[in-house]
Design a protein that fits this description.
1 helix, alpha+beta, four-stranded antiparallel beta sheet
């Protein structure tokens, strides 16, 4: 009986520990993205030129970006920061609204985004209940959220 109880406690601890590790890993990467976006905004002001937070490769400046490795690049092509690779099996999704297009954030020299609001969604493999949104608006405000505007958990099925 003691062995059975010990096995149950161990099993529960392993599941709780795995959940905690995944949740912490998700928030670590979401904070890394948030900090890189803030860095891109500040760099645009400091360098007096457009600075791009590259997540995709749909522009000529971001053409050398490897999938899963976001980076911050000046308009002239100078790499300012390379982020760590997304954890294996996790996904970083991107949605924008407004007049912007593509998968990259472009900050103008005055520190505002070039025409759009939106969100990144960090979705850990097998634990969509731990998903985090990195929400930004075109004036440069950035925040993290674990629920949407209606109070529902972030949904990574899009």
């Amino acid at each position: 009986m003691v062995l059975f109880i010990g096995a149950l406690v161990t099993l529960f601890s392993m599941e709780f520990g795995d959940s905690l590790v995944r949740k912490n890993r998700t928030f670590f990467y979401a904070n890394t993205i948030r900090d890189a976006i803030a860095f891109a905004r500040m760099s645009a002001v400091v360098h007096g030129q457009r600075v791009i937070f590259c997540h995709g490769s749909d522009t000529s400046i971001c053409k050398n970006v490897k999938p899963g490795v976001p980076m911050v690049i000046t308009e002239s092509g100078k790499i300012l920061r390379v982020l760590p690779r997304i954890f294996s099996g996790d996904r970083l999704l991107f949605k924008i609204s407004g007049t912007g297009s593509g998968r990259n954030l472009v900050f103008l020299p005055r520190g505002v985004l070039d025409g759009h609001n939106g969100s990144f969604f960090y979705c850990p493999r097998g634990r969509s209940d731990h998903a985090v949104a990195i929400i930004f608006n075109k004036v440069g405000r950035i925040r993290l959220a674990t629920v949407d505007a209606q109070g529902n958990k972030i949904n990574c099925n899009f």
